[in-house]
Design a protein that fits this description.
Number of strands: 10
Radius of gyration: 20 Å
Number of helices: 11
Strand content: 15-25%
Order of helices and strands: HEHEHEHEHHEEHEEHEHHEH
Shape: globular
Structural class: alpha/beta
Amino acid sequence: MKKAPLWISCKSLLAAGTLLVAGNALAETPERIVSAGHSVTELVLALGAGDSLIAVDSSTRLPADFRALPVVGYYRQLPVEGLLAQNPELLVGGEHMGPPNTLTLLENSGVNILQLPEAENGDQLLENIGQLAGVLGKNADEIKASVTGKLASLRAARANLANPPRILFVRAQQGRGLKAAGTGTSPDSLIELAGGVNAVDFAGYKALSDEALLQLRPDWILFSSDQAETLNNGAALLEWQPLLKLTPAGKKQAFLAVDGFALLGGLGLSSLDEAKKLNEKFAGK
């Protein structure tokens, strides 16, 4: 008789207040997994549980050579019926996966749920890897060694930046001004990982006034790749906000598009690669 898998629901995990031990296979891999959130799906695949993955959410970008999977909504607005139709054993996602009533209904239907915190730094990413590996019954040694190596390389690269650049990450729409990413956001975590300094110190996303644009004096302006075409790779920002031409970034047209998938659900594996690319740009490579 097949042993009952030792999975942990989000409620049980919070009640326990502890993390699973990384690298210890505590259970057989669940046979039917739905992953909601790109960074989480990256970890599921990296841990070797791809064969058990039966569906993903719309924020997930699967590898080009991976088999086609059903898409079950967006991780913040998951539909109960669409998920139950996949007959999942485990739903795994980030802390903002929801809505809450969907998760409650799924748990009441017997679906096991794991919500991982959105990692803001490398240590938290490693904790997520260990926690997920325990639930999936996979060994995390190889992936943790790879991540640890990349984090060490990034630390060294940051130390080699004589003057950490001031970075402004924006979301923009013509006629509606700019919103900047502050503390507690994925862009802020990525900026720090790459060796930059966020030009703003408020929390979350906030609109910027014309006066603030001049005072912030960013050396680089970043935006998500999903806006690259709309922003004409940054050139449109100078048209929409002419005052940017007076900033160091505007004078040099120092604009960079960041892979949007590296910004979803906190720091993930693709975030490490994106941070390396940004650091190299900051260093003039």
